[in-house]
TrEMBL record:
One of its GO terms (biological process) is L-leucine catabolic process. This is hydroxymethylglutaryl-CoA lyase. It comes from the Bacteria. Residues 15-281 form the Pyruvate carboxyltransferase domain. Its EC number is 4.1.3.4. One of its GO terms (molecular function) is hydroxymethylglutaryl-CoA lyase activity. The keyword 4Fe-4S does not apply. Keywords: Lyase, Metal-binding. The lineage of its organism: Bacteria, Pseudomonadati, Pseudomonadota, Gammaproteobacteria, Vibrionales. Pathway: Metabolic intermediate metabolism; (S)-3-hydroxy-3-methylglutaryl-CoA degradation; acetoacetate from (S)-3-hydroxy-3-methylglutaryl-CoA: step 1/1. Belongs to the HMG-CoA lyase family. It is an enzyme of class 4 (lyase). It catalyses: (3S)-3-hydroxy-3-methylglutaryl-CoA = acetoacetate + acetyl-CoA. It comes from Photobacterium rosenbergii.
Length: 309
């Protein structure tokens, strides 16, 4: 940890950016050809990223954008120093991830009963029970498992989420064998004070190196929330290049925080990411052009405008 001369907070000297654009981002965008996704991930692989979520093995009926994840993961040009992961909610998904040679898998739960019922049609307790066979298989095959936890700040159905409830579910995921839990502000209503309260509660029981943060930018608070998390020593941040993805509970609103914006923030704080900003932006421009959208990243747009000068 290093002390900044202009503030009283402690920041990590280095952070890990967990790139979720090829999964959490693209699953909320228009469907793309398989080769376009492969080209996108190959570009991301040249940017300095160490973790890329490359696919999702969920129901193709529910998430048709991810139906070709097996073919995508089999076709990408893998770099030796990068972990390519996939979302796997059940045994069938885990077996497909194995076939796709995923280096790591992720399971996803909710800190809110309402969201759990609406999203995966079961209670929180039932969802955790469903993960047990997946965890057993992962242990058998020596595959690391990451846990995603939704609605850690607010829920579109239940309102404000109790921090003790978030802690309870997060601890259960760690106890089950997840090496890390990513705390997700699913509807993007979090603010720095709420984030500080949540992280303080979690850190009293779970080491910081087992906590990641996943902020959506629905209300424009993702970067302030990340700054708050960084000031409390959080070292892993989920981000989506070009801000890919949306918020299904706020039509038209921004979704995932943009990787380019997070990298720029870290650069200005003197925090090492290991990423080349221009290469990240290049991947974002490529996929945005394929989707016929503008990058939802202020930094990306500024870089592109600078190039055109």
């Amino acid at each position: 940890m290093i002390k900044r001369p202009d503030c009283s907070s402690d920041f990590p000297d280095r952070v890990t950016l967990f790139e979720v654009g090829a999964r959490d981002g693209l699953q909320n965008e228009s469907s793309l050809p398989t080769q376009t996704k492969v080209d996108f991930i190959n570009l991301l692989s040249l940017s300095g990223l160490k973790h890329i979520e490359a696919g999702s093995f969920v129901s193709a009926k529910r998430v048709p954008q991810m139906a070709d994840s097996l073919n995508v993961m089999r076709a990408i040009e893998r770099q030796d120093n990068i972990t390519y992961s996939a979302l796997t909610p059940n045994i069938q998904g885990f077996e497909m991830a194995l076939s796709a040679q995923a280096d790591e898998v992720a399971i996803f739960g909710s800190a809110s009963e309402g969201f759990s019922q609406h999203n995966i049609n079961c209670s929180i307790a039932e969802s955790l029970k469903r993960f047990e066979p997946v965890m057993a298989l992962a242990q058998l095959h020596n595959i690391p498992v990451r846990g995603y936890l939704s609605c850690v700040i607010d829920c579109p159905y239940d309102g404000s989420t109790d921090t003790t409830q978030v802690l309870e579910v997060a601890r259960t995921l760690i106890d089950m064998g997840c090496y890390e839990v990513s705390l997700g502000d699913t509807i993007g209503t979090g603010t720095p004070l709420k984030v500080a309260k949540l992280i303080e509660t979690i850190q009293n029981h779970i080491p910081s190196n087992q906590i990641a943060v996943h902020f959506h930018n629905t209300w424009g608070q993702a970067l302030p929330n990340i700054y708050q998390a960084l000031s409390m020593g959080i070292r892993t941040i989920d981000a989506s290049v070009a801000g890919l993805g949306g918020c299904p509970y706020a039509p038209g609103a921004s979704g995932n925080v943009a990787t380019e914006d997070v990298v720029y923030l870290c650069q200005q704080l003197g925090i090492e990411t290991g990423l080349e900003l221009e290469k990240i932006a290049l991947a974002g421009w490529m996929i945005s052009d394929a989707l016929n959208i503008s990058p939802r990243s202020n930094v990306s747009q500024a870089l592109r405008a600078k190039r055109l000068q």
